Amino acid sequence: MTRSRLIRKTREYSYCNLITMLPNSAGFVRIIQQHLQDQTICQYNGFYFNLKSFGLLSYKYGGAEGDLIIKRYAVAVRKWLAEDETLAHLGGDNFMALVKKSRTEEFLHLLEKVEVTAKYMGRIIPVYIVAAAGAYEITAKDGDPRDIMNGLSIAVSYARQHKLPYAFLTDKMLEETVDVQRMEQMLPEALEKREFQVYYQPKVDSRTGITVGAEALIRFFDEAHGVVGPIHFIEILEENRCSHLIDLFVLDEVCKAQKLRCISDRRVVPVSVNFSKNTLEYADLLDHVKEIMNRYDLPEGLVEIEITESVGDMDIVLINNIAQSLISMGFRLSMDDFGTKYSNLEMLFKFPFSIAKIDRSLVKNLESNEKSRIMLKHLISMIMELGIECVAEGAENEEQVRLLQQFGCNIIQGYFYSKPVTFDVFTSEFVEKTRNQL
User: 346 or 30, which is more confident?
Assistant: First the structure.
């Protein structure tokens, strides 16, 4: 092979994925540029699709067979496409496509289930691959391939995040993406400067009206948007595997506040702090928690740790060891979101929870849904019989509170009593005001 031919071949391969020999991202950009030059781009819609759970398939059949499955998938989709339509393989389980606008609905239907084959234990078996897709309606305004590809990335991320089969890019998604990018830039500095603030939502004994505890909830103060709730930044932290920074920040702030109350001989009620699944997976978690507890030297039971049902996916021995270690440091453990999944029941038996918090979704339609009332009544009864304290979250009206009392759950957290408030408001309006009732 001559030098010039070798250079030409190398250049061609730089635009291809070497597993499927389809255009890669650079090749896809080049094709879009050609359509822009020919003024044919508006005939197409763009698609970015990701194969669901492909990692599990690759694990089951092995890496080599996984590559072959990807190749067969690419062949099947390419065979469906028309000659002037494009399929690109970005790598791994990610693909992009240009499909005629008139065939968009059919293409999305195809992506719902593509049948290929796999070799397993000497047999050829069918494998059905489902994709989550982002779609972009290309218009005459689109003159830059990067804008099209960025739009596709946003749309597929939205589809995956919301567990949708597909999502078309909208202006709202673009606005949300700008907000996310801004938050990503601000978070590291905000964490360093401790610009987050802990709010407290009271837990009230509905029989007496006395505040008996609270849940600590994180808020962020942004000059442009005011107080920002966790829905706008927790997901960013979790995606970057650093949500433990927030959870440990909240724990430190709560312990500091509880210590100050103890020193000043004020009434102190237990406060619960949420630990996410990512936090529990953080390797140095227990060392940091122990450091915080040693710093403030609080009496046992003044801080509770709320754990969601999502930890049911984690290693049982690991979670049990973490749970026992937290208990030995003086924490009580609370299961958050109880009743939302069957796995809750299994976790309640496996791990040493002292408290179970009924999820707000079960309380929401309590007064109008007889099935909710029946289920909740038996859930509360079971929790009480197990000797576990029951707390209900999300009560918003008097009838919900009355029914919860009737079923035996008296400790209630929700907007009926208060939204989350600052520490000063919580102590003055809820803790101190009820002190005289004791």
Answer: 30
Q: Do residues 323 and 333 touch, judged by C-beta distance below 8 A? A: yes
Look up residue 421 and give its DSSP letter: B
Question: 142-160: b or e for each residue (b if 16 or more CB lie within 10 Å)?
Answer: beebeebbebbbbbbbbbe
* CA–CA gap between residue 131 and residue 68 (Å, rounded): 17
Q: What is the mean pLDDT of residues 272-293?
A: 92
155: pLDDT strictly greater than 70: yes
Alpha helix stretches (DSSP H) within 241-342: 243-263, 277-280, 285-296, 316-328
Distance of CA 86 to the CA centre of its chain: 33
User: How far apart are alpha carbons 5 and 2 in whole angstroms?
Assistant: 5
3-state secondary structure of 118: strand
Q: Are 437 and 430 in contact (CB under 8 A)?
A: no
Q: What share of the chain is helix, strand, coil (3-state, %, to 5)?
A: 50, 25, 25
Would you give the DSSP letter of residue 218? Answer: E
d(CA 403, CA 398): 9
What distance lies between CA 164 and its chain's CA centroid?
15
Q: Which amino acid is at 235?
A: E
- Is this structure's pTM higher than 0.70? no
DSSP 3-state of 196: strand
Closest CA to 151 of 32, 21, 18, 23: 32
Residues 248-251: contacts with CB within 8 Å, 24+ apart?
Answer: 248/279, 248/285, 248/288, 248/289, 248/292, 249/191, 249/194, 249/196, 249/218, 250/198, 250/216, 250/218, 250/274, 251/289, 251/292, 251/303
Nearest in space to 52 (alpha carbons), one of 109, 92, 98, 104: 92
Q: Is the dihedral of CA 36, 37, 43, 46 positive or negative?
A: negative
Residue 220: exposure state from Cβ atoms within 10 A (0-12, 13-18, ≥19): buried
Mention every residue, 6+ apart, whose C-beta is less than 8 A from residue 229: 219
Instruction: Say whether 46 sits in a helix, a strand or coil.
Output: strand
pLDDT tens digits, one per residue of 87-141: 999 988 999 999 999 999 999 999 999 999 998 888 999 999 999 999 999 998 9
Contact present, 193 and 186 (Cβ < 8 Å): no
CA distance 293 to 272: 14
Give the β-pairing of 210-222 and 271-275.
parallel
Q: Which residue type sits at 25?
A: S
pLDDT computed for residue 338 by the predictor: 84
